[in-house]
């Protein structure tokens, strides 16, 4: 079995950037793109905050550009899913969904994270037509318009506060009679005049005709149903890092994000590096994911040099 210098698990901005840097360092990287080639940007329409695209770009188009650049430098890309890992030896062994086993001296993890959704049929119908899971990514499109945010934790509080600077009215839908957010975040929300909190409230249906025009909500105590006029609906109930196959192998925080050492992408396993949303629970932006992908490739190169492999 050939031993690769570097295998990248996952794609998206982190994986493709890691591939570009690893390829240019003559690491001959092999990428397994996983079950969601291109990551979350494949379901994102307009991306206007990534440097180098002054007129904005469609998410899938940007990921196609990333892929072409990685391949241009010699990255070998395979559309397999890594289903199991064995990091117990110096040479790491990965099992693919077709049963094949592959080995590498270094592994870069770029499996990303997936937004949690409410599960409403209308939520899926209006995806990218007014429904979003990222206010920082998409809030600008709703400048001057009324919006709603679902959630009661820090993420929802942060998104509502961010949107309050762009929108005249932000409806925060909290399904309990209190928020789970930290005290400082709650205080910030309470002090923001154009955030209206709806306690004990759940979204029942997103309304619209081609694009979002409102949301039907219900008070889960009184059962009263109300329609709110909005054009943007932001789901902020958290993200789930796609790190299940690394449980009990890599050090993670309480929610499953991979813990890296200091200002590096090093994990607790030598030769294994984590990048992008699989290890970033705070920023979750394409540009920061790309940055950590670059770091992971450079860390992998340094490791291979130190070990005398290259």
Largest beta-sheet details: 7 strands, mixed
> What is the CATH superfamily of the largest domain?
FAD/NAD(P)-binding domain
Poorly predicted residue ranges: none
Tally of distinct domains: 2
The quaternary organization reads as single chain
In helices, the fraction of residues equals 10-25%
Radius of gyration from the CA trace?
Answer: 21 Å
Mean pLDDT: 95
Keywords: Disulfide bond, FAD, Flavoprotein, NADP, Oxidoreductase, Redox-active center
Enzyme class: oxidoreductase
Pfam family, one: Pyr_redox_2
Family: Belongs to the class-II pyridine nucleotide-disulfide oxidoreductase family.
Explained architecture:
- With about 300 residues, this protein is of the alpha/beta class.
- It folds into two domains: about 5-115 and about 240-305, FAD/NAD(P)-binding domain, CATH 3.50.50; about 115-235, FAD/NAD(P)-binding domain (3-Layer(bba) Sandwich).
- Helix content is about 25%, strand content about 25%.
- Strands 1, 2, 5, 6, 7, 8 and 19 form a seven-stranded mixed beta sheet that branches.
């Amino acid at each position: 079995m050939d031993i690769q210098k570097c295998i990248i698990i996952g794609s998206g901005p982190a994986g493709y950037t890691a591939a570009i840097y690893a390829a240019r360092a003559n690491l001959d990287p092999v990428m397994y793109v996983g079950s969601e080639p291109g990551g979350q940007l494949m379901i994102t329409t307009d991306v206007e905050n990534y440097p180098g695209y002054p007129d904005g770009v469609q998410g899938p188009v940007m990921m196609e550009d990333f892929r072409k650049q990685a391949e241009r430098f010699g990255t070998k890309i395979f559309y397999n899913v890594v289903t199991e890992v064995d990091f117990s030896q110096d040479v790491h062994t990965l099992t693919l969904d077709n049963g094949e086993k592959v080995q590498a001296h270094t592994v870069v993890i770029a499996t990303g994270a997936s937004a949690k959704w409410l599960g409403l049929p209308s939520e899926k119908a209006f995806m990218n037509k007014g429904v979003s899971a990222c206010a920082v990514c998409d809030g600008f499109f709703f400048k001057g318009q009324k919006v709603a945010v679902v959630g009661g934790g820090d993420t929802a509080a942060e998104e509502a506060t961010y949107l309050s600077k762009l929108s005249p009215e932000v409806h925060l839908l909290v399904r309990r009679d209190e928020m789970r957010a930290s005290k400082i975040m709650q205080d910030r929300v309470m002090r923001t005049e154009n955030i209206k909190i709806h306690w004990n409230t759940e979204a029942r249906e997103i309304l619209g005709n081609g694009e979002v025009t409102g949301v039907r909500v219900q008070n889960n105590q009184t059962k009263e149903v109300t329609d709110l006029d909005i054009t943007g609906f932001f789901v902020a109930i958290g993200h789930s890092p796609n790190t299940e196959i690394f449980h009990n192998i890599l050090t993670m925080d309480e929610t499953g994000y991979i813990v890296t050492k200091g200002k590096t992408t090093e994990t607790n396993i030598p030769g294994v590096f984590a990048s992008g949303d699989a290890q970033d629970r705070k920023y979750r932006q394409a540009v920061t994911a790309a940055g950590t992908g670059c770091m992971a490739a450079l860390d992998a190169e340094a490791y291979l040099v130190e070990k005398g492999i290259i």
